[in-house]
Design a protein that fits this description.
The protein is an alpha/beta fold. The protein has one domain: NAD(P)-binding Rossmann-like Domain (Rossmann fold, 3-Layer(aba) Sandwich). It has 9 helices and 7 strands, in the order E-H-E-H-E-H-E-H-E-H-H-E-H-H-H-E. It has a 7-stranded parallel sheet, sandwiched between helices. It is globular, with a radius of gyration of 18 Å. The relative contact order is 0.15. The structure holds nicotinamide-adenine-dinucleotide. Nicotinamide-adenine-dinucleotide binds next to helix 1, helix 4 and helix 7.
Length: 253
């Protein structure tokens, strides 16, 4: 699909990988709606690119439905959804005192990363599936998993499970949506230099970057956005997860 002139939604678009995706989509001529919890950053990003901001918690069905309707009134039917909203504080299953991880901690990560992605994609597709196609297809969903879906580290049980869930649902949903001409893809990034990573001391950033076989550095969020652009542009890409990681395979810790 050609990006130019189409309406797009980016969850987590206020910051990091989502923010770079918003930049790319706006530059390519899309009408971009940012769905994010962070009002300050989200509004600033929307203002910078001539897009719009909707304060949305991706786990909330009512908020997501209302924002999809409001974005459609503003920009027309959204054809592109990029799910980038995500959280991931690491915690071990058993802490130093021998206590098990409270279920609520595990559940909150599953809720934002996995249920939130499903919540937005299901409502996006429900709104889109009866619209007129654009050429061969109606639209495309791109989810963000992580290499942790495959090589999760100690402390990443909930995060890895949430991202593994995203990888697992990609093919069945792509198969279901085939009849509507809506593609479903997932990107599994390795280590990218987003605001979270930028708070680490330069030494720590360099040491993490050196673990990447090639190129031996952290990924640039613009490189994630390039992948999003390539997926949107190539209609044969469907039902697959692409690792974007410079060949890194994460160690146990
Ligand atoms: N940065 C990396 O190296 C890396 C690697 C692998 C995967 N990822 C994944 O990429 C995605 C983006 O990560 P990032 O590094 O850009 O993080 P980030 O913290 O810079 O951006 C995440 C955005 O999601 C928003 N968000 C969080 N919870 C939300 C909710 N419930 N509803 C709506 N918005 C919410 C935040 O406000 C923030 O703007 C995440 O899913 C993350 O797991 C990142």
């Amino acid at each position: 699909m050609n990006i130019k002139g189409h309406a797009a939604i980016v969850t987590g678009g206020a910051s990091g990988l989502g923010g770079a995706t918003v930049d790319m989509l706006a530059r390519s001529g899309a009408k971009v709606a940012i769905f994010d919890l962070n009002e300050e950053l989200g509004k600033a990003k929307a203002h910078a690119v001539g897009g719009s901001f909707f304060k949305v918690n991706v786990t909330n069905e009512t908020e997501v439905e209302a924002a999809i309707r409001a974005a459609e009134e503003l920009n027309g039917k959204a054809r592109i959804l990029v799910n980038c909203a995500g959280i991931g504080p690491p915690k071990k299953v058993i802490d130093r005192e021998g206590n098990p991880l409270p279920l609520a901690d595990f559940s909150s990560i599953i809720s934002v990363n996995l249920l939130g992605s499903f919540n937005v994609l299901s409502k996006f597709a429900a709104a889109l599936h009866t619209a007129d196609p654009v050429g061969e297809e109606r639209g495309v969903v791109i989810n963000t998993a992580s290499v942790a879906a495959f090589d999760g580290q100690i402390g990443q049980a909930a995060y890895a499970a949430s991202k593994g869930g995203i990888v697992g649902m990609t093919l069945p949903i792509a198969r279901e949506f085939a009849r509507y001409g809506i593609r479903v893809m997932t990107i599994a990034p390795g280590l990218f230099l987003t605001p979270l990573m930028a708070t680490l001391p330069q030494e720590a950033q360099d040491s993490l970057g050196k673990q990447v076989p090639f190129p031996p550095r952290l990924g640039d969020p613009a490189e994630f956005a390039n992948m999003v652009e390539a997926i949107i542009g190539n209609v044969m890409l469907n039902g697959e997860t692409i690792r974007l990681d410079g060949a890194i395979r994460m160690a146990p810790k």
